[in-house]
Amino acid sequence: MVQRFDVGARLSEMAVHNGVCYLAGQVAADDSLDMAGQTRQVLAQIDALLARAGSDKSQLLMCQIFIVDLADFAALNEVWEAWLPAGSAPPRATVQAKLARPGWKVEMVVTAAVTERPVP
């Protein structure tokens, strides 16, 4: 059975199936922030969604990161590396992309293992 969270007409924020959690692309709520600020917001949203799924950042299986400007790569990595638990870096891809809104600087899509029962 697939369990979906925050289902909308276009997408769900998250789906859990067979012990794996799939998140939709996460972007910053405040697009006036710089790359570090937007990255912190995105990672906080990921933390909250993973907690609802019965998982956490130590259980990441994969991360795809889309950034608008490669000049922001170092700022992204600084926040990312401070957020990750030691020894838990997942496979990751970072690509330059034009995002759906002009103010967004970063979007992240993660997949994680689920270790507990999800909370609806």
Give descriptors for this structure.
alpha+beta; six-stranded mixed beta sheet; 120 residues; globular
Task: Give a brief rundown of this model.
The protein has 120 residues and is α+β, with helices and mostly antiparallel strands. Helix content is 25%, strand content 30%.
Head-to-tail CA distance between termini: 14 Å
Which regions have little confidence, pLDDT < 50, spanning 5+ residues? none
Q: Pairing-aware structural class of the strands and helices?
A: alpha+beta
Count of distinct strands: 6
Tell me the CATH superfamily: RutC-like
Under the CATH scheme, the architecture is: 2-Layer Sandwich
What is the CATH class designation?
Alpha Beta
CATH fold title: 60s Ribosomal Protein L30, Chain: A
Helices, by number, come to 2
Radius of gyration: 14 Å
pLDDT average, as an integer?
Answer: 96
Structure description:
This protein is of the alpha+beta class and 120 residues long. The chain has one domain: RutC-like (60s Ribosomal Protein L30, Chain: A), CATH 3.30.1330.40. Helix content is 25%, strand content 30%. It has two helices and six strands; from the N terminus they run E-E-E-H-E-H-E-E. The protein has helices at residues 35-53, 73-83, and strands at 3-7, 12-17, 20-23, 60-67, 92-96, 106-113. The chain has a six-stranded mixed β-sheet, with helices on one face. A hairpin with a 4-residue loop joins strand 1 (3-7) and strand 2. Helix 1 runs parallel beside helix 2 (73-83). The protein is globular and about 40 Å long. The two termini are 14 Å apart. The mean pLDDT is 96.
